[in-house]
Structures are given as structure tokens and as C-alpha cells.
């Protein structure tokens, strides 16, 4: 089967080509799937997409009209896919339900430590041989309270690292994770977690119920000197409310690997263009904010698992099989 892969990064391409060499022809494009690029898929029975692809109703119709019958998304999240429309068009949809949770958990801690210890500011100074310590003071995290919103596989991995720091652990989820409880985590209501934590990290999926989980009211509950980290989905935080909090001098640091309006920006070079997103532009001006480009998952270990699972999803489609990764089964 010939598969067309959209939104393929340069580092990702050889891993995809190697994985799909075992039974399928793969063509990789660096452009992302959207309404204007969807016609490129004409004649390809299967397409593979990234998390920032537009798989709304119109794009799905273009794909279906062009002969596409299977969509293999290279991510765990699928909030960008209109599954009802996909089903009505007879499109099979699959995702990657699991990959290394350590990639994201470790990067969340990278962001937390970078903003806590002012690493970006320090590196910028020393590049110009300015070795002053003014404004670089951080704080020990041993004994501090770390709040984890969402204690699934990634949240558990993040908690294990927090335990290694000697932190006090608070958790919030639909049900306690026994592994986190064994590490000393106390499960509390979201309001108590936000009010008590020195560091808050988000590890929940983006669903209608979790959209703007941290809205203006929730952000007001947090300590003025708290650290906030989000490596999950941008829509979990009301960014306008976050900017307002930062403008009033709140929070020691904020580390964001995701942004709620990142589609059309992240994974692309916009350095020579005017950014029309005023909220993101304002966010970037705060010296205690570190924004990265949705790269938490981006380790060789995790990406290898993602592309190999994606190939197996295509194999399953070709064989008429279903798996735990199947979101919309083959008609």
C-alpha cells in the first residue's frame, strides 16, 4: 500500500521510511494536512498525519473524495479529528495510544528547572560574557509541594521524578493511581492542589470537560510564586487569563510546550513573518516564561515507537483488523 505522510520533520523522516520499508511504500511531505494541502493525498488509500493536522469535516471530505480510506495519526491525542464525520465517510481512523511516557515527563521537568533556575536568561548573558548573578536566584525543590493534574502514565513518570527530588506530592484525577499513592502522593480536590502547590504540572487529555481547566478563577487560586508547566495540550489553559496573571507579576515561572492556538505556528519557521497572534506575542515578552515548540515527545525512543505503531495500524487496516489504537473501525 502507498501511504502519504503529512507534517514529517527532518529528524523523523528516516525513522518513518525505515519502519514502513517493511511492507508499504511511504512518501513523506513536510507540509501539514489542511484544506489547501488535502488534495495532495488524491490516489493514496492511507495517509498519516501529525497532531497539528486539520482533520475537520471539509478536509475529511476532500480526502474521501480523493480515494483515501485510512488515516493513521502519529499521536495519542485526536481532538483535531472529527470522528463522527470520518465514520460517516467510511474512513478508518487510528492513533498511537501509547509511547514512552518518560519523554514528556522528563521534558516537563526540564521546563520546570529551566524557569526555576533562570537557565535561558543565564545562557543568553554568558553568550555575551556577562557572568553576573543578578536576577538568577532560584530555589530548592526538595521539600516543596508538587501538584500533578492527571496521574496516568505520563503523570506517574513525572511523579517518580518529583519523588526523587524529595518533593511533597499532591495529585488530582478521576481515580488514584496506586503507583503514585505508593510514592506518597495525596489525592485532593483541584482547588486544594492549586492553592497548596509550589509547582503545578498538567498531564490530562484535552476534552470538552478539561478545556480551560486552568481558567482565570483557577489561576487565581495558585500561589503568586508558583511554577506552572504544561506539556499536555494548550487548550487546558486559558492563555488570555494566564497573560493577565503574568502582567500582574504573578508566578515565579511558566514553562509551556503547548499553546491553545499553536496550529499554523508550531513546527514551522515563522521567524521572518509578523505574528498576528497578539496573545502569543504578549506571552513571549515575559522574562519568566519559556515557550517551546511542542517537542516534549520528541526523543528518538518515543518517535521510533510512534512510527512503528503507526505502521502496525496501517498493517491492521490492510488486514481488516481492529486494535486498541482504532478510533473509527473499517466499514
TrEMBL record:
Domain of life: Bacteria
D-isomer specific 2-hydroxyacid dehydrogenase NAD-binding domain segment(s): 110-296
Protein name: 2-hydroxyacid dehydrogenase
Domain D-isomer specific 2-hydroxyacid dehydrogenase catalytic, residue spans: 8-326
PROSITE patterns linked to this entry: D_2_HYDROXYACID_DH_1, D_2_HYDROXYACID_DH_3
UniProt-listed InterPro entries: D-isomer_2_OHA_DH_cat_dom (IPR006139), D-isomer_DH_CS (IPR029753), D-isomer_DH_CS1 (IPR029752), D-isomer_DH_NAD-bd (IPR006140), D-LDH-like (IPR058205), NAD(P)-bd_dom_sf (IPR036291)
EC category: oxidoreductase
Amino acid at each position: 500500500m502507498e501511504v502519504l505522510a503529512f507534517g514529517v520533520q527532518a529528524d523523523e523522516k528516516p525513522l518513518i521510511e525505515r519502519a514502513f520499508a517493511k511492507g508499504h511504500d511511504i512518501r513523506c511531505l513536510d507540509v501539514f494536512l489542511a484544506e489547501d494541502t488535502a488534495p495532495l493525498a488524491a490516489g493514496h488509500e492511507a495517509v498519516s498525519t501529525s497532531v497539528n493536522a486539520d482533520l475537520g469535516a471539509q478536509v475529511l471530505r476532500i480526502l474521501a473524495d480523493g480515494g483515501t480510506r485510512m488515516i493513521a495519526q502519529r499521536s495519542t491525542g485526536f481532538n483535531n479529528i472529527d470522528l463522527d464525520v470520518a465514520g460517516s465517510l467510511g474512513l478508518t481512523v487510528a492513533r498511537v495510544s501509547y509511547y514512552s511516557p518518560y519523554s514528556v515527563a522528563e521534558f516537563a521537568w526540564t521546563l520546570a528547572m529551566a524557569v526555576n533556575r533562570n537557565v535561558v536568561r543565564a545562557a543568553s548573558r554568558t553568550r555575551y560574557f556577562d557572568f553576573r548573578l543578578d536576577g538568577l536566584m532560584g530555589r530548592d525543590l526538595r521539600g516543596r509541594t508538587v501538584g500533578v493534574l492527571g496521574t496516568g502514565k505520563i503523570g506517574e513518570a513525572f511523579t517518580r521524578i518529583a519523588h526523587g527530588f524529595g518533593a511533597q506530592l499532591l495529585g488530582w484525577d478521576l481515580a488514584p493511581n496506586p503507583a503514585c499513592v505508593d510514592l506518597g502522593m495525596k489525592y485532593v480536590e483541584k482547588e486544594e492542589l492549586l492553592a497548596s502547590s509550589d509547582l503545578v504540572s498538567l498531564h490530562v487529555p484535552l476534552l470538552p470537560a478539561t478545556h480551560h481547566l486552568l481558567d482565570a478563577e483557577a489561576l487565581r487560586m495558585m500561589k503568586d510564586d508558583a511554577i506552572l508547566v504544561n506539556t499536555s495540550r494548550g487548550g487546558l489553559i486559558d492563555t488570555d487569563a494566564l497573560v493577565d496573571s503574568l502582567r500582574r507579576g504573578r508566578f515565579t515561572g511558566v514553562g509551556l510546550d503547548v499553546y491553545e492556538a499553536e496550529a499554523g505556528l508550531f513546527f514551522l519557521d515563522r521567524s521572518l513573518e509578523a505574528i498576528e497572534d497578539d496573545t502569543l506575542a504578549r506571552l513571549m515578552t515575559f522574562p519568566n516564561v519559556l515557550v517551546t515548540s511542542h517537542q516534549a515527545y520528541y526523543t528518538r525512543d518515543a518517535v521510533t515507537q510512534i512510527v512503528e505503531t503507526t505502521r502496525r495500524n496501517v498493517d491492521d487496516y490492510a488486514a481488516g483488523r481492529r486494535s486498541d489504537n482504532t478510533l473509527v473501525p473499517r466499514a
